[in-house]
C-alpha cells in the first residue's frame, strides 16, 4: 500500500501523518477525519492530499484500503508452534529411512570426493555439511554458487549430495545433469520425492514437512535437513571406526 515511490513523494507534514498511521493503524481505521487530524497534528486538507497520493479518492476509501492492508498482513503471519518438527521426529522410526541413510554412508565411504550442492538457504546448509563431515574426518566440499566454474571432469567418481527444499532449483538441476555424465553418484535431500531433483538422483532422501512461504521467500524449517546431515556424519564416523577394529 505504501511503496517506495509513494513515501518518497510525501512532504514533511505528510510524512508525519504517515508515521502516525503506521504506529496506530488499528485505531485509524475507526477514526473520523477530524479525529485523525487532531491526533496527528495535521489539517484535514493534508489528510485528503495524503489520500490522493496513496491512490484513494477520499478518506473513506483510504480507511477501507488500510483495513484490507492490515488484514492481509495478519493472514501472512507464520505458524511458530513446534508441531511440524514434532511430527517429523515421530516419523523417524522408519526402516526405509534407516536403509537409505546406511546406503548413503556406504556410498560416501567408497567415493573419491564428497561434494554438497545447493543455493540460498540450502547453500548455507551445504557449507555446514561440508564442515561437519570434515570435522569427523571425511573431507568434503560444497558448491553454493549457481555460477561456479564448471570443470566437471575433476568431479569424476565423486558423490554429489544436492540439498533443495523444492527440488526444482534450475541451476542445481543443471549441475546434476552435467555431473551425471562424469560417473558421479547423485544423492538428493529434498522435502518431497515427487520433484525433478529427486527423480534424476540415484538416491533420494525426502523428509516431508509442511512448506512455508512469505512472499517469494521459502522459510520451510531446515531442522530435518540438519538432522539428516548430522545423522549421516555420525554413522559414517562409526562405520570407519568399525572397519578398523
From TrEMBL:
The answer to whether keyword Secreted applies is no
**Record protein name field:** Transcriptional regulator, RpiR family
> Which biological process terms from the Gene Ontology are attached to this UniProt entry?
carbohydrate derivative metabolic process
Record organism: Clostridium saccharoperbutylacetonicum N1-4(HMT)
The entry lists its GO molecular-function terms as: carbohydrate derivative binding; DNA binding; DNA-binding transcription factor activity
Question: Carries keyword Transcription?
Answer: yes
SIS domain location: 104-239
**Highest rank taxon of the organism:** Bacteria
Question: Which keywords belong to this entry?
Answer: DNA-binding, Transcription, Transcription regulation
Q: Which InterPro entries match?
A: Homeodomain-like_sf, HTH_RpiR, RpiR-like, RpiR-like_SIS, SIS_dom, SIS_dom_sf, WH-like_DNA-bd_sf
Q: Where is the HTH rpiR-type domain?
A: 1-73
